[in-house]
Write a structure and sequence with these properties.
By secondary structure, this protein is mainly alpha-helical. The chain has 6 helices and no strands.
Length: 118
């Protein structure tokens, strides 16, 4: 599957994962939840996360990350550098791949601790 399509699915799956984990881990009002979610789901937040977990990726996940990172994207980020946007697209491609293959446990292994800091 096209890496940008994987990233499209990964963006939605990661956003849902973040929102769900924030709701279950806190008693915040929706405005605070939205702010916390936006920080993590942003290209900058995803770029920071992938830099911290890249070494945990399997060889196959690293290959998918590189395909996503290097793919020609139809849009540009408004609030992130090109490098951050490319990293976040690679991250989203990995999450999309894991989501579509039903490997939810692996998603949790990679990003589970990140979403429980608050």
């Amino acid at each position: 599957m096209n890496a940008v399509v994987l990233a499209f699915i990964g963006d939605a799956a990661y956003s849902l994962y973040v929102r769900e984990s924030l709701v279950f881990a806190s008693d915040y009002k929706t405005g605070v939840l939205q702010k916390l979610s936006a920080e993590r789901v942003s290209a900058k937040g995803q770029a920071k996360l992938i830099e911290s977990i890249y070494e945990k990726l399997t060889a196959e996940e690293q290959e998918i990350f590189l395909r996503g990172r290097n793919a020609k994207k139809p849009t540009k980020s408004k609030n992130a550098s090109v490098a951050e946007y490319n990293l976040s697209t690679g991250f989203e491609a990995v999450i999309g791949y894991l989501y579509l293959t039903g490997n939810y446990g692996r998603i949790d292994e990679l990003i589970g601790g990140e979403n429980n800091e608050d």
